[in-house]
Structure formats: structure tokens, C-alpha cells
Amino acid sequence: MTYLPLPKVPARRVAFIGLGTMGSGMAARLVAAGHEVRGVDIDSARLAAFEEVGGLPAASVAEACDGAEIIMTILPRDTHVRQICLGAGGIADSAAPGTLVIEMSTISPEASLDIHDALTSKGLRVLDAPVGRTPKDAQNGALLIMAGGRAEDFADAAPVFAPLADKIVHLGPKGSGIRMKIANNYMSMVSMVLTAETLAMARKAGIDTDAAVEVLQNTTAGRGQINVNYPKKVLRGDISPDFPLAMGAKDISLGVGLGKSLGVPLFLGANAGELFNLAASQDIRDWDCTAMLVLIERLAGLPDRALAQDTDQNKDKESS
User: Fold this and answer.
1) Entry pTM
2) What is the pLDDT of residue 7?
3) CB under 8 Å to 242, separation ≥6 — which residues?
4) Among residues 287, 290, 301, 292, which one has the least CA distance to residue 272?
5) I want to staple 239 with a disulfide (CB 3.0 to 4.6 A). Which of 20, 171, 280, 291 is the partner?
6) Which residue has better confidence, 222 or 119?
């Protein structure tokens, strides 16, 4: 296994619990960076592979936590994390007060907060710090870390974060990291459906899939609104219409109509069409399409964000 160059960081004693798809690469990176890493996993083959890259297999969570300065966990589900953190012989029972626990699993925010509070009541310090990207990125130290917790604990985690990620973001207090991860995953999975609907519609229309992919990779739609339009428009407070919501309503109607004529179910398209049509009742149909964010935020009970352009100016611009 090869690795990208590692940053030089102070060596720490680390307990790493969970040597699965993501954890195995992460733990190996920590070893390669010079940390003393004791690994725990129920799979003996994973422990053996970890030992081959210089890790120290531990027979139990208690053994791994003995003398550890930092404890890192990345496990499949809420129940696994609760058991490892709070069960008999787990982290709460085994770690010394003041130890930093970095919980990196993708679990429910409720479980994450419960575990955070239970561990801090035992005198431990805790960050929720789930990761984004792929197992290959874990091997190469190119993950994205989304951390929630105290700023001083986030700073203390720098030596173990640095070998793992090329993007490390402190999002705020406890629970911020896991909530951001879930929001990101929501966007990812909905985009999976959107992409599938689009490619299926193109294929049913007789378009070669490779050709469709080539087109989509070179349009704003394919590159992603979060990378192209949102940062330069509504997120800057500018809702002057480069492309108004009213025209978006027309386009989504045409798309859903094509899907219907071809017999392609467009579940997301139908719901999106309802939202675009709702813009008229909110008096924002002439605002830029990225003002869909304003509409969604209103439906969520949030106040309007600061906007650089008022509606009358936008209407004047659109009619000119």
C-alpha cells in the first residue's frame, strides 16, 4: 500500500476503534505519521492487516485505551458506538479523565449528543468529527473532516487530523459535525436519484448514455449548483434574475412532461415542480432561481436572509 506524503506532527498515543472500510486506511495513516496506535476490531483479519503496517493490535477496548491520549472511533451504527463508548469495559469505563475522544462514525445526532454528554460526565473531552469522501481518500490522507465540539479540543486534535484529511472544518459546538455530515449525505443521496432520473430519461429518449454524460459533465447542472450558481447569487444576497424562478417552473414542467411521455418516473421532478409553482404565491417568481433557498427557508420557518436586491428591482431587470 502506498501513501501520499505525510505532514510532520507531534506523535501521540492513540486508541483507534473500528478498522473497517474507512478506519483501516485512517489508522494506517496515523501509524505512518509516527503515532503509537493501538487498534481494536472484532475481525481478526483486520487486526492482522493493521499489525502488518506497524499498528499495535489490542485485545480489548480497555487495553487500547490504557495510556491513550486520544481515542478515535469509527463504527457502523448507533448501537455499536453506544456499546463501545458506554458499555461495560468501554471507553467511559476505561479512559483516563481528560482524554480526548474523537467520534467519527455516521450516526444519528440524538445518539451522538447522548454519547457526548455521557462521556463528558465522566471527565472526558469529546468531538463529533465524521468524515467525508472515499476509502481511497482515507488511504491517501485526503478525507474531509467535519468537527463539532469545543475549539480547544479541535485544536488539540490537529496532530491526528492532519495525516487523515486535506480539508478539516470546525463547524461549531457539539453535534455540529454529525449534523453537517447528515446534511451532506442527504444532498448526496438525493443527487443520486436526480442523476439516475436524468440519465434514464436521456436513454429512453434515444440518447447514448456516454454522450449524455459528456454533456452533463460540461453544464452547470452537471457540475453542481453548490459549486456554480449558489455561491455567486443568493448566498451573496443577490437574487437579481440571471434565470428567474418563473423560467425554472417552465423548464421543470417541460422535463416532467417529457418524462411522462416517455414513461420515465420522475419523482424528484414532480416535487420540484410543485415548489417552483409555489414561488408565485410567495411573490418571488421573478427572483433568481437560486432564491429557491429563500422559499425553502421560509417553509422551514426561517427569516429571510439579507438580500442585496429587492423584488421591484428584480422585476425591472427581468423585463428590460
Assistant:
1) 0.82
2) 64
3) 229, 233, 288, 289
4) 292
5) 291
6) 119
Where exactly are the structural domains of the chain?
13-181, 219-319
CATH superfamily of 219-319: N-(1-d-carboxylethyl)-l-norvaline Dehydrogenase; domain 2 (1.10.1040.10)
* Cell 428567474 sits on residue: 244
**Which residues are designated catalytic?**
181
Residue-wise pLDDT tens digits, 99-150: 999 999 999 999 999 999 999 999 999 999 999 999 999 999 999 999 999 9
Pairing of strands 143-148, 131-132: antiparallel
